[in-house]
Specification:
About 65% of the residues lie in helices and about 5% in strands. With about 140 residues, the protein is mostly helical. It folds into 2 domains: about 40 residues, Zinc/RING finger domain, C3HC4 (zinc finger) (Herpes Virus-1, 2-Layer Sandwich), CATH 3.30.40.10; about 80 residues. It has a two-stranded antiparallel ribbon with strand order 1-2. A hairpin with a 5-residue loop joins strand 1 and strand 2. Helix 3 runs antiparallel to helix 5. About 5% of the residues are buried.
């Protein structure tokens, strides 16, 4: 922590920069970011500086949340697919000395190949979901 910054000590004993804890509390997290001990509402009112927030209508909220989830699912699916491809590449490099037919007939390669197909299908579904949510929200 900076020596010259304003420090706020919470009821649980944890200390934070005043600005940092204000950001956390203004985001409606009425608990310590480290141990999740609830902060009394009276204490929270003294720590929080009112911040103007954009208003979102009830109709927009579910679509925004669903679209954000779809985008996150796409990112996860892409990482899974890339990791699966990397595992196949690594397997092929380790077994480069073996004949091609032996490598492709091994149970390990078959499992990796099935994993790749599943990962690719999951990525395709995630892409489709993001595209659908983009159409619905626009």
């Amino acid at each position: 922590m900076a020596r010259n910054g304003d420090i706020t000590k919470l009821e649980c004993g944890h200390e934070f920069h005043k600005e940092c804890i204000q950001k956390s509390l203004s985001a409606y997290y009425n608990s310590c970011p480290l141990c999740r001990t609830p902060i009394s509402s009276a204490r929270a009112r003294h720590l929080v500086i009112p911040v103007s927030r954009p208003t979102i209508s009830y109709n927009q909220t579910p679509f925004n949340r669903d679209r954000a989830n779809a985008i996150n699912n796409r990112l996860v699916a892409r990482r899974v697919y890339e990791n699966t491809r990397a595992r196949i590449h690594e397997y092929n490099m380790v077994n480069a000395h073996r004949p091609h037919a032996d490598v492709e007939s091994s149970p390990t390669f078959r499992k990796l190949f099935k994993d790749e197909v599943r990962a690719w299908q999951a990525l395709a579904r995630a892409e489709e979901s993001v595209n659908w949510h983009s159409l619905v929200t626009s």
